[in-house]
Amino acid sequence: MCGIVGYIGYRSAWDIVIKGLHRLEYRGYDSAGVALMNGGLKILKKAGKVSDLEAFAIDADKTGTTGMGHTRWATHGEPSDRNSHPHQSGDGKLSIIHNGIIENYAVIKEALIAKGHVFKSDTDTEVLIHLIEEIQTDSVDLLEAVRLALNKVIGAYAIVVMSRDFPDQLIAARKGSPMVIGVGEGEYFIASDATPIVEYTKNVIYLKDLEIALLKRDELVVKSIDNIIQTPYIQELSLKLEMLEKGGFEHFMLKEIYEQPRSVRDCMRGRIYPIEGMVRLGGIKDYAEKLKNAERIVIIACGTSWHAGLVGEYLIEEFARVSVEVEYASEFRYRNPIISEKDIVIAISQSGETADTIAAIELAKERGATIFGICNVVGSSIPRLTHAGVYTHAGPEIGVASTKAFTGQVTVLTLMALYMAQLKGTINNAKLVNLLTELDEIPALIEKCFKEDKKIALIAEKFKDSPNFLFLGRGSGFPVALEGALKLKEISYIHAEGYPAAEMKHGPIALIDADMPVVFIATKNSSYEKVISNIQEVKARKGKVIAIVTEGDKIVKDMVDYVIEIPESNEAFLPLLATIPLQLLSYHIAVLRGCNVDQPRNLAKSVTVE
Ligand code: F6R
């Protein structure tokens, strides 16, 4: 939530910061602002997107080689010019950008008001810069003032601070919100993730929680918040610039949908051996014994990642015969969950930064569980918190609505289920050979799903003005239905719900009339006949049915209004295929409704607040 970028060096800070903010806009787009050191401390900020800020600042003097910028997802205070970052101290000498929430800001604010501080915004961030101002005296330098102030705050933060009195310094710190430092020659970069940095340097340092850094053009000092000098570890980025571009597609979301044959293939590469009937997962192999003996697995995640977890439940129970519970991280962390050292917890997160998932991991870790991560962003917080894990290798996902990350997560869960089955002997080698041979074909089958894209666009045309949608499926088709409904809601703003198809008659069937589009996952699998009965129930009430069917299916075709075909596959891999047309359907509907597909309203890609 909120994107941060900073630069100190010899190039135009404005150019670097603005370009970086465009890359980080997926993290929030309620307002944008930049602080530049050019003579004094120049602040340019505006409600709206980064492009609104650029238009606003068109005639401003934007020279300067030290600067920082922020793109906001509002928490404290409505999106407005006044609440936009950077915020300043009372004397205007200090400026701050912040990602996170200062939980005790009200108490600090009250104390500062009593000392005469006057606030201009409703934000928690402004309180922090006034606190730094209060602490900084002639005998306390900027780094020390920020450090002392951070010792007084409760909450999460990634901050960058600039000072008119220390024009050749940036101070950065983090707790619970990500921060990456790019190391150049005679220059340093700082950002919420590596995307603003990648075209300038491949050498990065992931700042750790409770670390504070002083950046000068030719010097970097990293300390812990309790004042112990740290030796930062410089690592090489594997990210490539072309991964951050649209590559000829109209939207990132469409590009990412079409990338799935590649991303699923990358996820399986080096991990499946169909001829031998073997799965290798290097990231968790040291825990093989633990996996073999696990009596219970708890999956924690949020949103789309939680839907992937539900698919994982079907797969792990089916193949490895271990009981699985799937929990919303945001609920799990606030209960008093029964977790012990015997449990394996799998945390799923695209960003690796979701605050609720992080808190749930910490809770499960305290109680002795072994924690595995399934993450997409390499080097993010969750992989560093977990005991072991498996990356999805989907590559950067920039569209706010998750697509290729979901299929990556489902692929990893499929591999984990088969790996566990192999360890436990709940599956014989011949069956594993067959399953892995079919799994190996999945990228090619995803490619075939795209043949229906034009037809899906025509169906979207018919239903683009529907105010409601239902998505129904059974077995692992149920999480697919949930995911289809979520995609439609978040990018087209149409109200949609996903249900297990059999649950329909326990309430939602009351919603069915001639204006209600119902999307069924009706492929040929073990629940095919049952789903057909559910389709009949909807048709009997004049509902409009769009069915995702197995290629060549005539029975469902004759029964429903529209069919979208997907290739035949093993039932276990159905979610990897059936999700694709649902992603395309929501994409086309959103485009036809004129919605901002890549940056839907009120959302942010990385939810680092609770
Ligand atoms: C939906 C979506 C969100 C995320 C959720 C968890 O398209 O992207 O529902 O899945 O915010 O985020 P991660 O996976 O980063 O933990």
Task: Name its key features.
610 residues; 35% helix; alpha/beta; single chain; seven-stranded antiparallel beta sheet; binds fructose -6-phosphate; eight-stranded antiparallel beta sheet
Describe this structure in words.
With 610 residues, this protein is an alpha/beta fold. The radius of gyration is 25 Å and the shape is globular. The protein starts with a strand and ends in an 18-residue tail after the last helix. 35% of the residues lie in helices and 24% in strands. It contains 18 helices and 27 strands. α15 (453-463) packs across α18 and α16 packs parallel to α18 (574-592). β21, α12 (381-385) and β22 form a beta-alpha-beta unit. An eight-stranded antiparallel beta sheet has the order 3-2-4-1-10-9-11-15, covered by helices on one side. The structure holds fructose -6-phosphate (F6R). Fructose -6-phosphate binds next to α9 and α16.
Annotate the secondary structure layout.
Layout: E1 3-8, H1 13-24, E2 31-38, E3 40-47, H2 50-56, E4 66-72, E5 87-88, E6 94-102, H3 105-114, H4 124-135, H5 142-150, E7 155-163, E8 166-175, E9 180-183, E10 188-191, E11 203-206, E12 211-216, E13 219-224, E14 229-230, E15 235-236, H6 252-258, H7 260-268, E16 272-273, E17 278-279, H8 288-293, E18 296-301, H9 303-320, E19 323-328, H10 329-332, E20 344-349, H11 355-366, E21 370-375, H12 381-385, E22 388-391, H13 404-424, H14 429-449, H15 453-463, E23 468-473, H16 477-492, E24 495-500, E25 517-521, H17 528-539, E26 544-550, E27 562-566, H18 574-592
Parallel strand pairs: 18-19, 18-20, 20-21, 21-22, 23-24, 23-25, 25-26, 26-27
Antiparallel strand pairs: 1-4, 1-10, 2-3, 2-4, 5-6, 6-7, 7-8, 8-12, 9-10, 9-11, 11-15, 12-13, 13-14, 16-17
Helix pairs in contact: 3-4, 4-5, 7-13, 7-14, 9-13, 9-16, 14-18, 15-18, 16-18
Fructose -6-phosphate is lined by residues 302-305, 349-351, 354, 357, 401-402, 486, 490, 607.
